[in-house]
Amino acid sequence: MNTIILRTASNYLLPLLLLFSVFILLRGHYLPGGGFVGGLVAAIAFVLHAFANGLDNTRTLLRIHPGYFMPLGLALSFLSGLAPILRTGRPFMSGLWFDGPLPAIGLIGSPLFFDIGVYFVVIGASLTIIFTITENA
Amino acid sequence: MLLAVLSGFIFALGLAAFGRRFKGRAVVLSALLPFGLFAYFLSLLPGAAAGQPAVYRYAWAPSLGVELSFHADGLGLLFALIISGIGTLVFLYSAEYMKGHKYLGRFYAYLGAFMGAMLGVVLSDNILALFIFWELTSLSSFFLIGFKNEEAASRRSALTALGVTGAGGLLLLAGALLLVYVTGTYSIREMLTSGVALPEHGLYPAVLCLVFGAAFTKSAQFPFHFWLPEAMKAPTPVSTYLHSATMVKAGIYLLMRLSPLLSGHQYWHATLITLGGVTMLYAAVHILFRTDLKGILAYSTVAALGILAFLIGIGTEAALLAAAVFVLVHALYKAALFLIAGIIDHEAGTRDVTRLSGLGRIMLPVAAAGFLVAISSAGAPPTFGFVGKDLIYEATLHAGPWSTLLTAMAILANMLLLYGGFVAGIRPFAGPLPEEFEKAHMPGPLLWVPPVLLAALSLLFGLAPQLLEGMLARPAVAAMVAGQPDFHLKLWHGFNLVLQLSGLTLAGGLLLYWLFRPSLRLERRIGRLENISPKGITEGLARGFERFSGWYTHLLQSGYVRRYVFIIISFLLALVSYRIFTSVNLYIDYGRISSMATYEAVILLLMLVATLIAVFTDSRLAAVAAMGVVGYSICLLFVFYSAPDLAMTQFAIDTLTVILFVLVLYRLPKYLKISNTRGRLRDGALALAFGMLITVLALEVLNEDINREVGNYYAEHAYVLARGKNIVNVILVDFRGMDTLVEISVLTVAAVGVFSLLGTGLDIKKRGEK
Amino acid sequence: MEILLAIMVGLLYAAGLFMILRRSLVKLIIGLVLLGNGANLLIFLLGRLVKGRPPIIPEGSKALAGAFADPVPQALILTAIVISFGLQSFAIILIKQAYKVVGTDDLDEINATDEDA
Questions:
Q1: Measured between CB atoms, does C90 come within 8 Å of chain B?
Q2: In chain C, how many H helices and how many E strands?
Q3: B332 and B438 part of one domain
């Protein structure tokens, strides 16, 4: 699959798809989307890039091993659940919101950070699985 | 009080942490713990004697009715004092006996835990707590008996003991629950005062069987006695503590404690008298056939336990008094005899009574102690044993129509006990000193002081039994009988029938001691009967059970995944379809069915074809592609039926799955057609039947109204409470966020699993090199 | 539509089970995937089919009114899809490694090697 067209296309596709995945992630609270789908789309973007340019190039692009996304995401989700306890003493996982919406993103609150955590875990897990298999297969 | 009971466990936990530093002086100092407990229980005595025992309650699991309540009445304190008192001596003795052992800390941890559990048994008021402590004694004794865990025999006897006493523990739980059901309370005190006439209750026989089962296994009554002689594989301090003074008395304690509630019916009395009598005579006769010091002591302990059960069975006030006093008598002299046996083993290197003699020349104090406790066990004046034996005869003589027979049995058992006591306490020290023991020397004070102390107590209480009367004996008996007991403990009662019987016992026992010589030949001869002994039968049963379960397991567990799946699904299919076709009205409610558009029909057709291809194709690539088509079709269905989130997720996942398959496909084995046509037809039939069952179930469920309460709640509150409009997403990240958190953890685990599986480089060549 | 879908679910279950009962490892995995799809579809079907009313609160209102698709089974299925991806990839790798080590695709032979070792 080492075609010029695909390689050229994937170079543009990667940032586009990533942007798209973030868009899906952020609008998840109001419209179809969310961390799971967003993370999967981002993962597909990287896999596509790896198909076209080779795994090594994608790795260089990523700089760190995708596995590190998983603890990062887990920590983010967990902390967002913890935040209500620390801030207001309410139970684990109760929603905590900032007042006033931000343009283009909407309201910001702990569930949003939770979703971002999910996003990272999904990226990390699927990329780890696929990359490991590609390397060893 | 709670601290007192738990201190043993705390001590054990502390040792688990700092066990390595536990040696030298610290070991000796650790005896301060049981000693402190002893002093504490002594301080509770006046209250119990005045009829106002201390009661302590701690809420534990209120919803289950488990309350840690402790109740220090006369009976409980009698046992608690024995446990902590003998415990103090055993702690001191072990410091020398086990000196330098690699796992000394561990040993003391077990001892401490055992002591705590034992105190819990005798002081608990809540019957469930009693059960828990009861099981804890079984467990800790398992570790103590198997302490020399490098020896197979030791491990085996520990398992036997655990098996027998553990089974008894289960019976106790069942019995306790029945008692709770009948009396309506968990508190033993309330049970006893509830006024429920249990012997008239329909469940009485069941309760009785269960309680007896528990008490007989724990207290080594025939035919469960065999674990106790086996348990002599334990280090001697353990035998002293568990198998003479405390643990085996737990069953006796249970019988004593429940006797006001359960006695009064001939089942109770007849069973206890018969089994107690059989136990004491059976074990007493066995004493004659043993040559090992500890074996002799073990059987004489079983005999003594038989006497106790026998006395409780007689059940008169005199008999219960005799039992309470005999508990103490026996604890004092038997613990001392065990300690002495340990000293002999330690110094002379053997426990064979046919070889031991003349050691009195080397260790005079030990010999003196041995002599005192031997005559106490013989029931000769002026020792405490004499008081105890008098009370026993007093009880049997006034036991109603069978009194002559019962007295004769008691006399016979006591003669043999005398023989056992003399062989263990006097013979090793008497006579000339053989050459082989000339190197033996006087043991350190930590070893000889404890038995001497016990012997001195045996003498003291014999000379002045009134010391015990008001403080200990009276409250202990008061706990078992109605009304205020009225008696006086005396050494000298005058020349009456009881005294004459005592004389007879002494004469008979001494005659036996002079005439009979234990020998290996006799021991071997009785060994031949092993096959029909209760022990042999039980072991045979256990082996048979093992073989049966092996056969049964192999019947179903073939080791082939397919066969497991096949069996499970067949069962499921048979059960569910039987239910459906016998009692469910099958129909389809067409009013609930929605119409179908053409494009939907096309998609379903596509799915159908793809599924068939996936199943029947010979090409792996085609199968994977077909699988992808099935996934994308489902994705479209999600789009049509209002599930955009699902559609997006399914699409992404399906893409990734296909990529994954393609990546590894050529590394995977070629499709094989291994199975034959018949097998395929059979599996196909089962699979189709299963699929049909699912379809029928789905259609049946669709006929019912759905409960959408939860969904509606989320729909109403998603924006108000969680400020989100995509309800599915709100459920995932907010309402059920905790679940999602766990789910992404699982995903992480799967990814890490993949990573590490491939990272290990497990392959056949490397495996060969190992 | 419900009837056809129910039949389709039954077919997916049947196909999945049939594949699991094969001796070939690859078929086992495909069977698992089919079974997973069948299960998801079953839950979706039992949550009742609703056309064109996704559980999303429209612009300007604060709660959903009228008929709408039940969000609970959807949330369930969404997590199930993602988890089954993890499960499938793990199973694939397990089988690939097993094949590499044992050198056979036949489940029965794997069983035999296990006992010999």
A1: yes
A2: 4, 0
A3: yes
Give yes or no: residues B530 and B606 share one domain: no
Query: Comparing C-alpha atoms, which of B695, B684, B620 is closest to residue B658?
Result: B620
- pLDDT(C104) > 70: no
Across the interface, do B624 and C30 touch by the CB < 8 Å criterion?
yes
Taking the C-alpha atoms of residue B552 and residue B563, their distance in angstroms, rounded to an integer, is 16
B740 and C17 in contact by Cβ < 8 A? no
Q: Is the domain of B337 the same as that of B398?
A: yes
Determine the Cα–Cα distance for residues B219 and B432; give it in Å rounded to an integer: 38
Mark whether B327 and B450 lie in a shared domain: yes
CB contact under 8 A, A35 and B733: yes
Whether B530 shows a pLDDT value over 80: the answer reads: no
Report the 10 Å Cβ neighbour count for A40. Answer: 27
Neighbours of C79 (CB within 10 A): 21
CB contact under 8 Å between C88 and B691, yes or no, is no
Please, what is the average pLDDT of chain B? Answer: 83
The pair of structure tokens assigned to B393 is: 């005869």
Model confidence at B764: pLDDT above 50: no
* Chain A 90-119, residues with CB within 8 Å of chain B CB atoms: 92-93, 95, 97, 107, 109, 111-112, 114-115, 117-118
Q: How far apart are CA B699 and CA B702, in angstroms?
A: 5
For B689-702, what is the mean pLDDT? 89
A20, A26, A31, A37: best to mutate for the B interface, most B CBs within 10 A: A37
> What range defines the domain where residue B739 resides?
723-770
What are the chain B neighbours of C98 within 8 Å (beta carbons)? none
Residue whose token pair is 């009313």: C53
In a domain, B488, yes or no: yes
Interval B608-616 mean pLDDT: 89
Beta strand pairing call for B66-72 and B54-61: antiparallel
Q: Give the number of domains in chain B.
A: 3
Instruction: Looking at the structure, give the CATH architecture of the domain made up of residues C2-51+69-116.
Output: Orthogonal Bundle (1.10)
Q: Which candidate, B164, B140, B326, places its Cα nearest to that of B238?
A: B140
Neighboring chain B residues of A43 at a CB cutoff of 8 Å: 652, 656
CB contact under 8 A, B652 and A40: yes
Which amino acid, A1? M
C interface mutation test: which of B604, B633, B634 has the most C CBs within 10 A?
A: B634
CB contacts of C89 in chain A (<8 Å) are 129, 133
Q: Residues C56-68: pLDDT tens digits?
A: 887 777 777 777 8
Sorted by where each begins, the domain ranges of chain A are 4-136
DSSP for B348-380, written as a single string: HS--BTTT---GGGT-HHHHHHHHHHHHHHHT-
The backbone torsions φ and ψ at residue B687, rounded to the nearest 5 degrees and listed phi first, read -65, -45
Cα(B445)–Cα(B229) distance, integer angstroms = 29
Contacts of C34 (CB under 8 A, 6+ apart): B611, B614, B627, B630, C12, C15, C16, C19
What average pLDDT does this structure show over B287-306? 87
What are φ and ψ of residue B58, in 5° steps? -135, 125
Q: Tell me the pLDDT band of C116, cut-offs 50, 70 and 90.
A: very low
